Amino acid sequence: MSLNADPGWLRWTPRAVQPTDVAGEFDAAAGTYDGLVGASPGYHEQLRLSAKRMQLPRGGAGLRLLDVGCGTGASTAALLAAAPEATIIGVDASAGMLEQARAKSWPSTVSFVHAPAEDLDEGGLQEPFDGIFAAYLVRNLADPDSVLRTLRDLLRPGAPLAVHDYSLSGSLASKALWTAVCWGVIIPLGGVRSGRTVLYRYLWRSVLRFDRAVVLVARLRRVGFTHVTADPVPGWERTIVHTFIARCGGDTA
Ligand SMILES: C[S@@+](CC[C@H](N)C(=O)[O-])C[C@H]1O[C@@H](n2cnc3c(N)ncnc32)[C@H](O)[C@@H]1O
Predict the structure, then answer these.
(1) Are residues 33 and 73 located together in one domain of the fold?
(2) CB–CB of 174/240 below 8 Å?
(3) Number of domains into which the chain is organized
(4) pLDDT in tens, 125-172
(5) d(C-alpha 148, C-alpha 158), whole Å
(6) Which of 17, 49, 94 to mutate to test the pocket of ligand 1 (most atoms within 8 A of CB)?
């Protein structure tokens, strides 16, 4: 399916983006992505909060961290703020998003790799990692369980996976708020800035379809994480955005 054939501005079409098209659609949006998320109140603060919730010790000294689905590097920057001494690898399936990330200024301890989450071996990404951040990624995966199992296997025992995503509390109010924000702000703004709305309409729908917070907790347990917590972000998005911290084995009490 060619996403370039999207007829555009606010026009509903059955040619909706599928998980398999996601990287290509992010390629197309890469140039305007930072501007859009920068206009989203709290976006960077929330990423920093989720990275902080990983409780990485010693400012990250001696740690090797992975930011999977790093995009233009917003989540990588959050991870770097939480663990400035760590070695950090950002990985993404979209070459366009990675180009934006690489164009930014990073310490020599930060690097980027082009590979899909489904085949991290392709990018030479092997265990062990001392922490993995997955911000706004899991919802986009065709087979989240399989990728989450891979991420679990890449982690040292007891090390944290942080999943940061739009995962609704499930109340009617959370769905109504999400729909109002999407159709009142995100989709029109995305259309004005990028000239196309397919990614933003996909965002709206993918969140409604995605796991509610309790369901994502159950999914993380099902794929083998033994210690899982879910915490909302503060503020108006508290029923919409959550941090999930998942660990298995090690001293996770
Ligand atoms: C919404 S962006 C989030 C980027 C960044 N983590 C942030 O917080 O700003 C989602 C990113 O996940 C990437 N992505 C989606 N599916 C992927 C997959 N299967 N493997 C690797 N990256 C993927 C997209 O290319 C995109 O850059």
Answers:
(1) no
(2) yes
(3) 2
(4) 888 999 999 999 999 999 999 999 999 999 999 999 999 999 999 899
(5) 15
(6) 94
